[in-house]
Design brief:
Helix content: 55-70%
Distance between the termini: 66 Å
Largest sheet: 2 strands, antiparallel
Keywords: Membrane, Transmembrane, Transmembrane helix
Strand order of the largest sheet: 1-2
Transmembrane segments: 32-51, 85-107, 113-132, 139-159, 196-218, 225-251, 271-293, 367-387, 419-437
Number of domains: 1
Protein name: O-antigen ligase like membrane protein
Amino acid sequence: MSYAPYHWHVESVWAGRTPNAAAMARAPGISAADMALICLFLLGLYTNYTIWLSTKVPFPSAPAGIAGVILLWRRRDAITPRAFGTLIGVMFLYVVSILCAPNLTFLSRRLNGLIQLTYSIVIGYALFLTVIQARRSQITGLFLGISLFIVVGCLLETYGGLRPISDSVRQVIYNRGVYENDLRDMLLYHRVRPKFFASEPASVTFCYTLFTFVWFVVSRWRFKLLLYVVLVAVGIFAMPGPTLLLLLALILPYMLFLASRQNGRLNVAKLLKVAIVSVFFLAAFFVLAQTVFSERFKQAQSGNDPSFFYRVRGPAIAAKEIVRDFPLQGAGLTGEPFIEQRVVNIYVQSPAYSVGWQVVSPATELLINYFWLHWIYLGAGFGVLIGAALTRWFFVIGIPSAAFCWMTWAILGQASGAYVGPTCWAVLFLSGAAAVLHERAPDPAEDRRRYSTSSQDLIARVQNIQHGPQLEQAR
């Protein structure tokens, strides 16, 4: 089946030729096979199961890669020449960036990083093309269902005796990177955090955060904000971790760039209303950080939390120094070995770093934040240039708000690394697909429900008009 006509319509809308028409476009829906492939893709993100083709060539998130390639083939007719040409332009800029990077002795490693980056972007684009063809009800049901499944699984692991099975499976499928900090969890959270077949608790909380937020953006349910808050609370209880607080921070891009829109355009009156809601959720973010995760918050503030340092504070400090030293080209894609000693020196000299910490290895573990890795790899010059090229591509493929995508991507980047990996780009493409579905007209079933409700309201009003004079006379 070819989906090119619909995709061309969306592309032409956001290229500026037919404003507001995107909201009227309806998708034909996707098949059960497509839904299964999306699930396989998300499973790859959740497990981050990697197959090593050689000692230096990984196949990251292998289930996602397999699903992405199949989805790309199934959606090949939806790729327009203009979208393909813009993508080639983006990848060309990445090629130029690694050729301009300092110390060409690392060129082979950077080329390997470019291959991984291309793989991640392509399968992420395939996921995007599939999701935007789905009906809104299909995506909300899928992502909410997966989020609830994760919650139930975590509760069973903690209270239902599932932990031995989960740990046994994890020992078999993960030959490296298995989480072994249960003692630290006991000190910080007074219990062992559930992994539920993932390599570490952070993968569980990150995917739960991402999937729940996608459901929230796409859903048109009147009380979705209330359920969203409930899901945040349930998540904190079932799988405690500060990553879940990002669910509160993610309200900000949604409110500013999607909820404030009407008929495809910014509505100032709605913007003022949603700004108040955003402020409330940001306040809740800081309050919960200091109460629910008080011990973790105190350690992060006092510089005694190595995980927080390597994920948030450290990469930001390193990015500032690397951009200052290499402003135009950065360190190059996957350039950690080139700057490893420099980054270690920067960390050791930082007042937020504790000399009692063990210096992590390999170099990729020094920088676990894909947002700051963008600037470390590319510098200010190529960072801005490639960011602008990607933004242009987003509009070409029909994403209504690039700002929403970038802000969502930046927030979730504080809990995930691997800039060239599939997770980084899946976040960007899933947020883009969610924005497309958010702007789309209601599904036919929703239209029927609304029509029925509107008809009943109209009949009631007519009856009130007819019987109004009689009631006045009776009085």
